[in-house]
Amino acid sequence: MDFLEKLSIQPANAGVSTGSEWLKSKGERIDSYSPVDGLKTGSVTAADEHTYNQVIDKAVKAFHEWRMWPAPKRGEVVRQVGEALRTFKEPLGKLVSYEMGKSLQEGYGEVQEMIDICDFAVGLSRQLYGLTMHSERPLHRMYEQWHPLGVTGIISAFNFPVAVWSWNAALAWVCGNTTVWKPSEKTPLCGIAVQHIVATVFKKNQVPEGVNCLVQGGRNVGEWISHDTRIPLVSATGSTRMGKALNVAVAARLGRSILELGGNNAIIISKDADLDMALLGALFGAVGTAGQRCTTTRRLIIHETVYENFKQKLVKAYGQLRIGNPLDTANHVGPLIDKDAVALYLQSIEQAREQGARFVVEGGVLSGPGYESGCYVKPCIAEASNDFPIVQHETFAPILYLMQYRTIDEAIALQNGVPQGLSSAIMTLNMREAEQFLSHAGSDCGIANINIGTSGAEIGGAFGGEKETGGGRESGSDAWKAYMRRQTNTINWSTQLPLAQGIRFDL
Ligand code: UN1
């Protein structure tokens, strides 16, 4: 595994860093097992309270320096981080694939998202625009400025072990913030690799120690971050359960959070759809990343007149899927992250059956040569009703539910009829349906697509969703504003002091 060497990963790694420096911690050891072959890849030492506090103090101190760098200078450093990622795309993509279990192409794709967000952030560093306003008072000027906020906590999930961090970090840095990252304890080595890559660039540019911090650990470290008043913004990706707890803790201290939580994404397949296109979109959306994206397609809402035909096509396509080692590019579907995820998958299939679902493609765990890790499962399809509790719930596995509709209103109501609101799509060539779906009376999700599946969003748009998805937006568009504080300035260049609203206060 030469990629580990290329990424400076040791069998045992310190897990707490302020940039180039690594701190000795008495925290627990976290072992990383690959779901690809079940083997132990390495370990990291989690942060203990003492090293955690040292890191946050350093991040606060570094903020005071970093915020004084002109934003385009910060952007230049981020440009170089993008360049370094280009150099390391191959080994880092492989590590993502091996540690997390997604296909090699998707591993590379994830590193590409990191590169893309760096490019985006470089341009952004010259475009942190505020508005100017006309004052109601004579010889006065009003405008707003966006100032850096402070330390940004980033809590990321195993399924996008590096890209989601980069969406946050690249933006936070050009905005003048420092970052403290807690990667998922299921993919700790990805965090180590990225830390090394960024450290080289930061060192060369004399970026203060503390701008890019890493604190490995489990839930307790996440809790320290969410309660920590030194961290004005916490950006967290993960389950709705985690997000609800974190949100309460951050809100209780009136901090800010960006939440990117669960999805329960559907594609509506209209009678006017290009069915071949719909098939591809549904297939990648449902089985890509073994159903472990927040944007994974979990429900297909199919028009009754094309239902049987589409179902047959889908069943046939599932029959052709190759499940196996994700580093082998001939395979379509890799493993789930670990055995706990496999247990949840099996339990969900059981619950679906009990609640009345009818499986048209059966699930199951694969065994035998190549499947020794016990994490490879069969993507499955069930006909179900939208109101089954299991259908209302996000199961992070390749289980796809099919349902029928008659009218477009009914289809949209089904699509919206879940607690989550991340991604949605309609496959149709009918312009009226498409526009209705995108209208204020259409999809209630943060992402709504026409003739594209639910997953695979580009970094240029704001990424995130409504309802139990948490409401946060990351990545493109003006998502950067969440990482800054807005200040309204009024300047009087007259010789008088006129008051607003025409108030007179003469002596
Ligand atoms: C996630 O699953 O947390 O749209 C992020 C997509 C990817 C990002 C998914 N660009 O599927």
UniProtKB/TrEMBL annotation:
Residues 22-488 form the Aldehyde dehydrogenase domain. The keyword NAD applies. The keyword Oxidoreductase applies. The active site is at E260. InterPro entries: Ald_DH/histidinol_DH, Ald_DH_C, Ald_DH_CS_GLU, Ald_DH_N, Aldehyde_DH_dom, ALDH7A1-like. Its EC number is 1.2.1.3. Homotetramer. This is aldehyde dehydrogenase (NAD(+)). It comes from Hydrobacter penzbergensis.
